[in-house]
Amino acid sequence: MLVATLSDREWWPVPNRNPLTRKLWNFLPLSEPDRTALESLASKEECFASHVDIVAEGSVPRSVFVLLEGMAIRYRNLSDGTRQVITFLIPGDVCDLHVFLLKTMDHSIGTLTPVRIAPVSRDGMMDLFTCHPRVSAALWWSSLQEEAMLRERIVALGRRDARGRIAYLLCELFWRHRAVGLTKGRSFSLPLTQTELGDALGLSAVHVNRILQDFRKHGLIVMERRKLELVSLPGLQKIADFNETYLHFGGAPKELTDYFERLESNR
Amino acid sequence: MLVATLSDREWWPVPNRNPLTRKLWNFLPLSEPDRTALESLASKEECFASHVDIVAEGSVPRSVFVLLEGMAIRYRNLSDGTRQVITFLIPGDVCDLHVFLLKTMDHSIGTLTPVRIAPVSRDGMMDLFTCHPRVSAALWWSSLQEEAMLRERIVALGRRDARGRIAYLLCELFWRHRAVGLTKGRSFSLPLTQTELGDALGLSAVHVNRILQDFRKHGLIVMERRKLELVSLPGLQKIADFNETYLHFGGAPKELTDYFERLESNR
DNA sequence: CGGGAGGTTGAGCATGTTCAAAGGATGTGG
DNA sequence: CCACATCCTTTGAACATGCTCAACCTCCCG
C-alpha cells in the first residue's frame, strides 16, 4: 500500500519556491491571491550560521518566523549538562504562531545547518488571518500537525525500544520532507549527527551508531554524505509500528472545503 | 523560593463553580460578561462512567468539550498490546479546540474516573472568539500551555531516570490541580493506579511501585485512598530537575493586557 | 598534511524489565 | 453482614537492554 502510494501518485505540481506553500497545499488548495499573500510573508529574509541559537530559552518570544532553508531544532538543556531535542524544524515549518501570548520561551531553537528564515510581522500575520481564511485554516492545521508530532514522540519515547525509535524518526522525517517536495525517490538530505539523533530519542550516540549499522546491514537504509536513503520504507515502518495517519496528510475534511467554497461563491 | 510562593500569596478569590474560568484567570482576569459567556458554555452536561472512551482513535473528531469533573487521559494503543498515556486531563481542560480541521482522531480519550463534561457547539465557540477577545486569548494561552506540557513530557521521557520522571509527573499534576483550585495545602486527589502512572512515563508498574515506596520512605510523599500529599514539593522538584516555568502561570505579557485595556476603553 | 569532529569498537556495568506469586483493599451479591 | 471476586499493590530473582568509558579510526576541510 505504501509503495503504491509512493509510486502511483506523483506529487502535485506545486512550484517549489516556497516550502510553506507546498506544505499547506497538502491540506487545502490555495487560491492565487492566497498564495501570493502567503509568499509575500517571506519578503524579508535572515540567515543564521550552523549551530547557533535563533531563540534562547528564557528570552522574550520574538516574532513569528518561517524556516525557508536548512534544519533547526527545538531543544532544552538540562541542569546535568545533557540536552533533549524536542522537535526538528525543516523548511516550511512555522515557528510559534501565537507565541506573543507568552512571556518567556520555555525552550531554545538552534540551527543544525546554515539556515534561512523569513521573519513575519504580527501585522502580516493578522492580515492573513482576517483576509485569507483558507490560509489561516491551513496554518492552524499545520500547528495541529505539529502537536500530533509531539504526541507521537511521546509514544515513541515511552513505548518503543531503540530500533523502533530510530526507525520511527527516520520515517517521520522522510514523510515530512516529502510533504515539502524535498525528497528524491526514497532519499533526502539529512544533516544529523548520531549524537543529535540520540539527543532526540533519549539514546546514547553509541547505541544509535550500532543500530544504524544494523539497519544498513539489513539493507533498510543507506547513509552517505548527509544523504539518507530509505531503501525499505515498509521495513522501517514495520520496525517502528509506524502509521503516518498522525501526520494528517489526508487533506481537509469535506465540511471545511465545502464551507470555503460557499464562502467564496458568495462574494 | 517555592515554599514562599506557596505560603505567601494565597490564591485569588475566584468562585470555584467552573474550573475553566478558574484556570484562565491565571492568565488573564476576565470581565463579568466574559465570565458569563464562558460559563454559559457549560450549560449542557454529559456524564461518562469510569474507564470508558469518550473519543476513540480513528473516529471523526466530535465537538469541543470542557472537562468539568473527574480525570481522563489521552492515549494510544500500540499493536503489541501496550498503551502510552499521552496526557492527563483534569477539570478545566478544554479538549480539541480546533479539531474540526482534522479528519480523524489520531489518539483516544478515555476516562479514569466517572467524568462530567460540557460539550461546546461550534457556534458557541465562534461566538466566544468573535465577541470575547479576552476569553479567546486565554483559551489560546491554555492550548499553548498544553503544548508546552507535551514538550516537557518529551524531555522527561528522553532524559530523566525513573525517579525523575515520577517526581516530575507528580509535581506537574500538583501545579495543574492547584491552578484550578483543586489542592488543599500540599494535597490533592489523584485516582491513578501505578500501572497508569507507568503507562504515562514509559515505566513498568513494578518499578513505579518501588520508586513510590522509596519516596514514601524518604518522607517526600504520602499516598492514601487516592489522595496524594506532596510532603516536600522542593524535594520532588529537585529530584525531577523541575521548573514550573513551562506551565506559564506568570500571567499575560504586559503588551497584551495593555492591548485589551485600550480595546475596552475605546468602546 | 594536520587537526578536529564525527563515527566505530569492545567490555563491564546499571537501570529497569519480566515473570510469578502473595498480600491488601474494595465492592458486589447472596 | 459475610464471602468471594477482582483489581491493585508488593516482593524477589533472573534477565536484558542500553549506558559508560576509553580508545581508535576516518573523513573532511582548512
From TrEMBL, chains A, B:
What is the superkingdom listed in this entry's lineage? Bacteria
- Asked if the record carries the keyword Transcription, the reply is yes
Q: Where is the HTH crp-type domain?
A: 160-234
Q: Which UniProt keywords apply?
A: DNA-binding, Transcription, Transcription regulation
* Natural source organism: Lichenicoccus roseus
Among CDD domains, the record links this protein to: CAP_ED
Q: Which Pfam families match?
A: cNMP_binding, HTH_Crp_2
Which terms under GO biological process does the entry name?
A: regulation of DNA-templated transcription
Q: Name one GO molecular function term.
A: DNA binding
Show the InterPro entries listed in the entry: cNMP-bd_dom, cNMP-bd_dom_sf, HTH_CRP, RmlC-like_jellyroll, WH_DNA-bd_sf
Q: Under what name is this protein listed?
A: Crp/Fnr family transcriptional regulator
